[in-house]
Design a protein that fits this description.
- By secondary structure, the chain is an alpha+beta fold.
- It folds into two domains: about 10-80, Ribosomal protein L6 (Outer Surface Protein A, domain 3, Alpha-Beta Complex), CATH 3.90.930.12; about 85-165, Alpha-Beta Complex (Outer Surface Protein A, domain 3), CATH 3.90.930.12.
- Helices cover about 20% and strands about 40% of the residues.
- The chain is built from two helices and 13 strands; from the N terminus they run ββββββαββββββαβ.
- The protein has helices at about 60-80, 140-150, and strands at about 10, 15-20, 25-30, 30-35, 40-45, 50-55, 85-90, 95-100, 100-105, 115, 120-125, 130-135, 160-165.
- The longest helix has 22 residues, at about 60-80.
- The chain is elongated and about 70 Å long.
- About 20% of the residues are buried.
């Protein structure tokens, strides 16, 4: 039995979970998410908790069992508390500025980069600390937007300039040494 798949997911007070055939919809104070479940896994609501069960012990069914339990847990956590990812901008003259649903980046290129935030994702920009915080209820979308922002100017290993995750450590390389 899957250690993750067999754990029940408690449903918080302000969250509503609906199961319509193979589609699970979760509504909460921060938004609404829905996901299609494969027929290998069945989802039930028992005593204010969501329970995932698999149909057989095939290898693929066991894999989907833990996967869908984790996805449903992330959906319930996302609509009740949300997810966030912090990025740091390091470099002289590197900065970010929020304008509506657009972030303007100055990253040492000859032009400013306009990054449009997708629907359901919001961002906060702290200009003093040069930090961008990406927020949303969909964990995958928050991580993808943060990765797209980081890819605008990935951190380089010599001076560490660029955009990095707040919890990321950059492995620094030694520069050239002077000759005799």
């Amino acid at each position: 039995m899957s250690r993750i798949g067999k754990l029940p997911i408690p449903i918080p007070a302000k969250v509503d979970v609906k199961i319509d055939g193979q589609r699970v919809t979760v509504k909460g104070p921060l938004g609404e998410l829905s996901h299609e479940i494969r027929p290998d896994v069945t989802v039930k609501i028992v005593d204010k908790a969501v329970i995932c069960e698999r149909k057989d012990d095939a290898k693929q069914s066991r894999a989907y069992h833990g996967l869908y339990r984790a996805l449903l847990n992330n959906m319930i956590h996302g609509v009740s508390q949300g997810f966030k990812r912090e990025l740091e901008i390091i470099g002289v003259g590197y900065k970010a500025e929020l304008k509506g649903q657009m972030i303007l980046f100055s990253l040492g290129y000859s032009h400013q980069i306009e990054f449009k935030l997708p629907k359901g994702i919001s961002a906060d920009v702290d200009t003093k600390a040069n930090r961008v915080t990406v927020k949303g209820c969909d964990k995958q979308a928050v991580g993808q937007v943060a990765a797209n922002i980081r890819s605008l100017r990935p951190p380089e290993p010599y001076k560490g300039k660029g955009i990095k995750y707040a919890d990321e450590t950059i492995r620094r390389k030694a520069g050239k040494t002077a000759g005799k």
